[in-house]
From TrEMBL, chains A, B, C, D:
<dbReference type="GO" id="GO:0016787">
    <property type="term" value="F:hydrolase activity"/>
</dbReference>
<dbReference type="InterPro" id="IPR015797">
    <property type="entry name" value="NUDIX_hydrolase-like_dom_sf"/>
</dbReference>
<dbReference type="InterPro" id="IPR032582">
    <property type="entry name" value="DUF4916"/>
</dbReference>
<dbReference type="Pfam" id="PF16262">
    <property type="entry name" value="DUF4916"/>
</dbReference>
<protein>
    <submittedName>
        <fullName>NUDIX hydrolase family protein</fullName>
    </submittedName>
</protein>
<keyword id="KW-0378">Hydrolase</keyword>
Length: 179, 179, 179, 179
């Protein structure tokens, strides 16, 4: 690691460095379940992203990404919402940095409900209302909106990457929308 | 109590009936701490109502009121926000009915941090961002906006009715804005 | 209502008075999901009560009961835990009076996930570890202990009175034990 | 970094590696506020550790430490409680991995209420009742028990390292013990 070379952004790891770090430390993530709410604050729809994973399969996922060095949780959450939902989604960030759930992802299954074969990641998860238009960018193909009942169904839950179906159910429970 | 007289709205107690009930049962209340937030969801200002109490003293209070028979918590919260802040406040109701605090008001001091000489009341308290213009109605004289630091100060806390200064501090703590 | 008769315990309503009140006001309840935890605080088992309801059917329910005039939420929770689980259950009461869920019970279905044909009740629900021996008293026949997966199953959820299966799932979600 | 040398425990960084990582990534911490509770679950005392910091000053702190690669949050919390309070403290770990607060520590002041000159750390904080005898080990000199009112006082809050006095107040607020 050329750590002595001046680096304009020390939080930006090279791919090799990131690969090494992933075998050494738990990485901190933020995760968001995008929702639409009615005028009374009640969740009416839940969004999931369709994405082609590394082996070309289509899976469902949530808004998710790493927290960078020097970045606040709010800034990280906002950055990943914009990256995954586009600049016109107008997310309403949570008042509190306390998440509705903390998801612990391990490379091997069985330790928790969540797996990530690349790394040990700990993710702080939030329910985030969006009031604008979502236009997925990067590797996400599209966003699908579902009712809370559909979102909590076994069919949807089993399609979600890394156990995130469980996180979706926890999200719904946290807003009183799990039946 | 003329309970046998047909009543178009059974949740509407007469003053005599309400007075009796207050000596018999804990009454259910909802309470809101109005806040203003910036684009990142961070609380920048906290609102408190100035009100003349029954003996003519000016005190500070929060948005507060009873839940009626047949009314949901959301409906009660919305009704009292509109009553106390006017129809143009545009409150963003919480996603979850779980309050940041449950305040227990007793007629006698010492049982909890909260007192209400009229009754035993249990109040579910929420932090509610408002995005419009507040125009207090009814018996509230005006709404004062303060920074989180001012709102948590001993001076303000001691001016609040029934121990609600403690509730204000709990509200600030729940959104990570208590210093 | 003989409200003018001196009453040594004003929080104690006669049956007639309670019946009247139930048509006039939302009643405040506390509710507990008894659990067993391992040495690391993880929920291993969840308890549900078997009870014969008013028409003789066997249903499942949770620890539940009314908050009396002058009683704190903690005292009410402790009283109902002792009433339903016996004096040797040794419950660990929650540190915080903030519930994991607020269940709104209405006489008519469709307003919320919860129904109670007798009344409008608002219930603050807590997960409570018990460390001793449970010996149901009063009208409860027995307590059944289940794994979190069993407790969240459609079969168990559908057997629970008044929609409390949903509350059970919310309880499991709140402790990270819903799959 | 000698990352190519086989390492029996890849989560164990050398001092040099840890120093490098601290300039590149936010590190994940867990933090505990030890408390004593009465039979009704109410917090009666709060513990703070006295510690000599790197320049020999005596400061107050909480139970705190890093989450290692492959370690669950519960395991990390238990390990640091044992390290700081000794093996006979008998802590009751929280039912839920959701913290009462997320403290963001930055090397420079002003970004949040918390600073850590060594690193950017994100800490999940929990209130943990202890039922046994605390016997601080390692670099902690002793544990001081205080009432909630003392613990929240300006004097104590200002003595706490890295802004943890704010975290202490948030802890008290989360259990309804902040006045």
């Amino acid at each position: 690691m050329s750590v002595r070379t001046p680096d304009p952004n020390p939080g930006w790891l090279t791919d090799v460095e990131l690969a090494e770090t992933r075998r050494r430390l738990p990485l901190l993530y933020v995760e968001a379940v995008p929702v639409r709410v009615d005028g009374m604050g009640q969740v009416t729809e839940v969004g999931a992203l369709l994405r082609a994973n590394s082996v070309g399969e289509i899976t469902r996922t949530l808004v998710t990404g790493r927290v960078m060095y020097g970045e606040t949780l709010r800034d990280a959450l906002f950055r990943h919402l914009e990256k995954d939902l586009g600049p016109m989604a107008f997310p309403q960030l949570p008042l509190s940095p306390v998440p509705f759930a903390v998801a612990e992802y391990f490379p091997l299954p069985g330790i928790s409900a969540f797996t990530d074969e690349r790394q040990h990641a700990v993710s702080l998860a939030y329910v985030v209302p969006v009031t604008g238009t979502c236009d997925p960018r990067q590797d996400a193909l599209e966003i699908t909106w579902m009712t809370p009942v559909e979102a909590a169904s076994d069919a949807i839950v089993s399609e979600m990457e890394g156990g995130r179906g469980v996180l979706l159910r926890q999200a719904l429970a946290s807003v009183g929308a799990l039946r």
